[in-house]
Amino acid sequence: MNKLMKLAVVALLFGTGTTLVAQEAEEEKPIYQITETVTVRHTPVDNQGSSGTCWCFAGVGLVEAEIQRIYGKEFNLSEMFIVRNAWTEKVAKFVRMHGNNTLSQGGEVCDVLYMIDKYGMMPESDYSGKVIGEERHVHGEMNEVISSVARAIIKNNNKKISPAGPKAVQGVLDAYLGEAPEEFTVDGKKYTPKSFAEAYRIDPANYIEICSFTTEEYNKPCMVEIPDNWTWTPAYNMPLDKLMEAVDYALEHGFTLGWAQDVSNPGFSRKEGVGIVPKDPKDENLWKEIVAEKIVTDEIHQTAYDNWDAGDDHSMLVVGIAKDQNGNKYYKIKNSWGDAGPYKGYWYCSEQYLRQYTIFFTLNKDGLSRAMRKELGI
Q: Which of 301, 327, 330, 377 has most Cβ atoms within 10 angstroms of its Cβ?
């Protein structure tokens, strides 16, 4: 083969290779090409592991973002310090209610605010809650043991509730999560959990919940009737359009929102990293191309809640607004499943998805417009 022929062959091979690479890149292009339009400052994605503590990771994410916004400081706070204190409160309430109250690992974003206010907070580096030899949080056995202790207490076989029960619960928490330190150092200064929380105060009184239910009076607080709302926290009720208006205003003005919603539906795709409400859930083009979505009205949202299609099975943090290549609106969601999915731990849920599956949001009052605060009487 002469030199000229060799050059021709090399050129052909490289040209073919380039074409194949281009074809592969085209094939791998995601269905939903997302462009962010608003992103609120927040801390990195974390991982709840094999634990039902999404509410805590979302709530801690909210607190961390608020500390950034208010104090200009970035902390990686301990979720498990809050989880152990929430278990303490859950068992106490379960006993007071003679067992007629929810007792589970679940909870809500607002629980984080309550626990920090009562018990304080600390950095993740000082209390990871990983003492049983697992790299990730694994809580199945712990949850069963705590539940067994609580149910043994309410049997009341001593004919009165003894002071040993709370100590037994603390013993279980110490065994599975580790003993919490009484003091720790941050930026060269010693703190207790309470003094650290006081130094970077996040007052629960400054935060509210907002929801949308046609069965309740608008612009008034109502009880959010879901099992994990064990603190019986009310939320301000508003029409669905107003609710979405509030979400947009908060994000556009630098506020994140804790989000209680449902991901157990065919419109939430782990592979694609998006959540939508397909007009036809059996559409053969679903997850092959962008499909038409259902327009979710107040009545449709209420029906989904009433028939358990929209439940409260997950909590995440809403941190931004985005759009796809067709101009459809989405919200950027910080999840707590590590860097899973095409967006490395983030999800993009459509506007209709939020309208369909939202149970309620938690946010700072200042994240609402003055007009809306006046309308709600805040």
A: 330
Quick one: which of 136, 177, 192 has its CA closest to 336? 136
Measured CA to CA, the distance from residue 105 to residue 97 in angstroms comes to 18
- Residue-wise pLDDT for 132-165, tens only, equals 999 999 999 999 999 999 999 999 999 999 999 9
Where are the strands (E) in the chain, listed by range? Answer: 35-39, 184-186, 189-191, 207-211, 221-223, 234-237, 257-261, 268-269, 274-275, 314-323, 329-334, 346-350, 360-364
Q: How far apart are CA 107 and CA 118, in angstroms?
A: 16
Q: Which residues pair with 337 in a beta bridge?
A: 47, 339
Query: CA 222, CA 234: separation in Å to the nearest integer?
Result: 5
Give pairs for 151-158: CB < 8 Å, separation 24+. Answer: 151/99, 153/91, 153/95, 154/94, 154/95, 154/98, 154/99
Q: Tens of pLDDT along 32-65?
A: 999 999 999 999 999 999 999 999 999 999 999 9
- Cα R_g (the chain), whole angstroms: 24
The Cα–Cα gap between 85 and 87 comes to 5
Q: How far apart are CA 270 and CA 327, in angstroms?
A: 22
Instruction: Report how far residue 155's alpha carbon sits from residue 160's, in angstroms, rounded to the nearest whole number.
Output: 10
Looking at residue 180, the DSSP 8-state letter turns out to be P
